[in-house]
Design brief:
There is one protein chain. The mean pLDDT is 93. The chain is globular and about 40 Å long. It starts with a strand and ends with a strand. The chain has 158 residues and is of the alpha+beta class. The protein has a 7-stranded mixed β-sheet, with helices on both faces.
Length: 158
């Protein structure tokens, strides 16, 4: 397994990982990353200044990914951890921690001071990972991501 920046040819595979995770875990499809247009064109969506997306790949097969992008607010010191999803075979093996660290390091190098994320209440293992890495729960979302089904909002100083 290796973690690397996304390439255009990874688009279909990472879209499949993201969407199949939602279906496998019975997560809501509306008001989530499942219906984001970005999910269908991940390379293009993260091919901008102060944005990056990483994939976890094995033998040419994308098995997961996650990225950093500016949060759409007036505060340009806040980034958002976005679309961090893994295929079933990767879960529980420490890749979440590795990828989270890589994303936070990249965010810091890009000059961000805070990292925000939104997630679903059902993703208890992900929430545990974020808390372990000093993300603090918020009472309400920051900005508007369109992810109305996400009921957990977290922020970390980086």
């Amino acid at each position: 397994m290796r973690i690397r920046e996304i390439k255009i040819e990874d688009n279909l595979q990472i879209e499949s990982v993201i969407k199949s995770t939602f279906k496998e875990l019975g997560l809501p499809l509306e008001g989530t990353a499942y219906e984001d247009i970005e999910t269908t064109r991940m390379f293009e969506s993260y091919h901008e200044e102060k944005a990056i997306y990483f994939v976890i790949e094995e033998n040419g097969q994308v098995k997961g990914g996650g990225g950093i992008k500016s949060l759409s607010t007036k505060d340009d010191t806040i980034c958002e951890l976005q679309k961090m999803y893994f295929s079933n075979e990767l879960r529980g093996k420490g890749y979440g921690q590795k990828l989270l660290r890589i994303c936070l390091d990249a965010a810091q190098k890009m000059g961000y001071k805070y990292c925000y994320l939104e997630t679903l209440l059902e993703l208890k293992k992900a929430i545990k990972l974020y808390k372990k890495n000093d993300f603090k729960e918020l009472k309400q979302p920051i900005g508007y991501t369109g992810h109305t089904s996400c009921g957990v909002w977290m922020l970390k100083t980086i």
